[in-house]
Amino acid sequence: MARKQYPLRIDPDIWAAVQRWADDEMRSANGQVEWILRDALKRAGRLPKKGDGNQGPPQEQDDA
Fold this sequence. Notes:
Structural class: mainly alpha
Order of helices and strands: HH
Shape: globular
Mean pLDDT: 85
Number of helices: 2
């Protein structure tokens, strides 16, 4: 799976907390941020299910 690179501006104290959490979970800080985001999306019901092809917002169809 291709990964999107994105520069992240974050408060140093928050980054330090993420890094400590990642160390506790034996993950990289980048992997921890991805896990946090994926978990939040899943809890909010916004994470597309694997294989459903829904990678973004629904497209409007023109019935003309």
